[in-house]
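re: ur question from yesterday

yeah so i grabbed the chain u mentioned. its 332 aa long if i counted rite. heres the sequnce exactly as i have it in my notes:
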Amino acid sequence: MSILHTIRLPLVAVAATATLAACNPPPHDVVQRGYRGTAMELVIDKAERAESVAANKAPDVIPQVPSGGPKAGDLYENVEVLGDLTVGEFTRVMASITQWVAPEEGCNYCHVPGNFASEDVYTKKVARSMLAMTQRINEDWGEKHVAPAGVTCYTCHRGQAVPQYAWSHDPGPKTSAKIDTNGQNIASPTAAYSSLPYDPLTPFLDEDYPISLQGNTALPTGPNVGTKQAEWTYSLMMHFSESLNANCTFCHNSRAFANWEQSPYQRVKAWHAIRMVRETNNGYIKPTGEWLPPHRLGPMGDVPKVSCMTCHQGAYKPMYGANMIDPYPSLA
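ran it thru and got these structure tokens back, copy pasting raw so excuse formatting
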């Protein structure tokens, strides 16, 4: 055996060892989510979680103002929402909304300078609808989904006029007329870059397509319970997982996915969340389309809507459960 060959073998061994060491998973925690032996575990990447916590901090709260004084609705014109607040509290809430939604643009994002009563700025009309939506979510979906933390404009907007994770109908990529992707097999962040259907949000969070499809017979029975329908459901589940940065066992018992009695309570929360999002999109967000300019619409002309990612943004609870509503009771 030559000297060169003798030296090469240890070098190869060192290189192989270094390569395999790089394959080790990053430091992580494992949280037991159910009974032992059921593999109901939540795996948490420590570095990823630290980044997520830093990115999901609640904003500073503007201090409370003294009570008393005239009502905003009596003093100002065209105050259709929050008019029952005192002028001081009304001003505090408006200043907070400016910080949450348009910190760079300021008050003029929704108002005509020098004439706040004017209706000429479309964003003022949209803001009214969003305030009513926020109150509805906190009042009627509180115990079902958002309580006790509640939501404010900041939960979705995070200092941006248009929430980063608003979504519109996805027309899909441009392909040859001879190629039919059947709505899938295209890498899409909505479906966690899987080969599943790339727009599960339209049928389930805008429209009311059935999600549950697990049958109790050996072969599919009835309409919309075949493999193709299952792929759409799995795509939606991938969206949930990506939005909350959690695996299936966050809502399901891994030994009995269909059994509600053996599922964590988060499954019930998720059931309500789906219906809350549908109502929010159809009852409050889509009607704003009559005011939005063309550049604010999606590629297919629809209004940008909300999904789980819009609020959660990679956290199993939005803002990791920070109490958003107590400092602003008028939004509930």
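noticed a couple things. Residues 55-164+313-331 form a domain with the Photosynthetic Reaction Center, subunit C; domain 2 fold (CATH 1.10.468.10). also Strands lie at 28-32, 41-45.
anyway ttyl
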